[in-house]
């Protein structure tokens, strides 16, 4: 999280959503030249679960977070969702981000066309974040099953800041 006031709260469990990646054939504007692949999103899907890190930050920093997430470019939209936070033992309302045009068809993580694949760098960041955030091991293993496009992010200064561990 690239936000000066961000403070990790714990692991969040979002029910009836799944993680997915943009369809860059249907929406070419979603191809991320920085990441060199499809960006992630969450999609409504019965009987699915998404785990993620829950962060607390100052309201004054929300505008900057929206900018980082591509809201002003109409790539993502902010949404409010009820998320169960294990460390708090209750549900709270969280701000999340969803692609403005989500993929419509559910694809198996392993057998997806390149237009729906993240880059190797981006998927590594997602998996490293899941491990660092102590998401359930079964979910981390599920994330590792997503097929990536074999490409690497193109901004070497950006990549260096990420301190990536090779987990794929």
Throw out a few tags for this protein.
G-Glutamylcylcotransferase, Hypothetical upf0131 protein ytfp, gamma-glutamylcyclotransferase activity, GGCT-like_sf, gamma-glutamylcyclotransferase, EC 4.3.2.9, 168 residues, 21% helix
Short characterization:
Helices cover 21% and strands 31% of the residues. It has 168 residues and is an alpha+beta fold.
For the termini, the CA-CA separation is: 21 Å
Radius of gyration, in Å, reads: 15 Å
> If you average the pLDDT, what whole number results?
91
- The assigned structural class equals alpha+beta
* Beta-strand share of residues: 25-35%
Please identify which CATH superfamily we are dealing with: Gamma-glutamyl cyclotransferase-like
From the spread of the alpha carbons, the general shape counts as: globular
Within the largest sheet, what's the order of strands?
Answer: 2-1-3-4
- Examine the secondary-structure arrangement and name the CATH architecture: Roll
What is the count of distinct domains? 1
Order of helices and strands: EEHEEHHH
Low-confidence stretches: none
Specify the CATH class. Answer: Alpha Beta
The helix content is 10-25%
Question: How many helices does DSSP assign?
Answer: 4
Tell me about the largest β-sheet: 4 strands, antiparallel
The name CATH uses for the topology is Hypothetical upf0131 protein ytfp
**Total beta-strand segments:** 4
């Amino acid at each position: 999280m690239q936000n000066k006031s961000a403070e990790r709260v714990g692991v969040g469990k979002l029910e009836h959503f799944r993680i997915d990646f943009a369809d860059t054939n249907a929406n070419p504007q979603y191809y991320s030249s920085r990441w060199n692949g499809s960006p992630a999103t969450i999609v409504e899907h019965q009987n699915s679960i998404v785990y993620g890190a829950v962060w607390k930050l100052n309201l004054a920093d929300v505008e900057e977070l929206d900018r980082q997430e591509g809201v002003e470019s109409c790539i993502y939209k902010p949404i409010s969702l009820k998320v169960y936070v294990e460390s708090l033992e209750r549900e709270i309302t969280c701000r999340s981000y969803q692609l403005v045009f989500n993929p419509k068809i559910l694809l198996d993580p392993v057998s997806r066309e390149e237009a729906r694949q993240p880059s190797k760098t981006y998927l590594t960041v997602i998996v490293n974040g899941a491990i660092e955030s102590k998401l359930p091991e079964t979910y981390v293993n599920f994330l590792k099953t997503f097929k990536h496009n074999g490409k690497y992010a193109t901004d070497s200064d950006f990549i260096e800041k990420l301190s990536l561990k090779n987990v794929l």
